Amino acid sequence: MSILLKKIGKREYAYLAYRAGARVVHKYLGPAESGRVAQKISEMKASEKVREEYRALFWDTDLKNIHIRRNAGYIIERVLELGDLSALSWIQGIYPARKIIEAIETSRKISHKSKNFWRIWFGVADAS
Fold first, then answer.
1. Which of 26, 33, 37, 124 could form a Cys-Cys staple with 119, CB 3.0–4.6 A?
2. How far apart are CA 76 and CA 90, in angstroms?
3. What is the enclosing helix (H) or strand (E) of 35?
4. pLDDT of res. 51
5. Quick one: average pLDDT of 115-126?
6. pLDDT for 94 beyond 70
7. Is the CA virtual torsion 78, 98, 121, 125 positive or negative?
8. pTM for this structure?
9. Structure confidence at residue 28 as a pLDDT band (50, 70, 90)
């Protein structure tokens, strides 16, 4: 999801852009100068970064350099290997379950024990 600003005449309007299958949908949010829209834009920008409360999981990296979408695999690996239920809940709110399961299956950094646990947790049939 991202927010687009379109200029129509002399005013700017905000739209929320997201994928629905193969289509890109633009949902109208309102005039860009609206307080509600400005708050939504700031929330979207804040959600692109790792929260300060999870700094301990990313001890070896500057949080400013971690982007939620670009570094999805790295974030998922760290949370599944070192995180708690709060961190798990956080990533489940950001990433779809299939992306987390894909990271479990392809990661070299998640231990065999953790992979096994998470396969059972997410209901993957071939857990061993």
1. 124
2. 10
3. helix 35-46
4. 84
5. 87
6. yes
7. negative
8. 0.67
9. confident
Name residue 68's amino acid: I
Q: Please count the CA atoms within 13 angstroms of the CA of 64 that sit on its side-chain side.
A: 0
How far is Cα 67 from Cα 77, in angstroms, rounded to an integer?
14
Q: What stretches of the chain adopt beta strand conformation (E)?
A: 2-8, 11-20, 23-31
Structural domain boundaries of the chain?
2-46, 52-121
Query: What's the CA gap between 39 and 80, in Å, rounded?
Result: 31
Q: Which amino acid would we find at residue 96?
A: P
Give the three-class secondary structure for 52: helix
Sort 71 into a burial class: Cβ within 10 Å, 0-12 / 13-18 / 19+.
middle
Output 24 or 126, whichever has higher pLDDT.
24
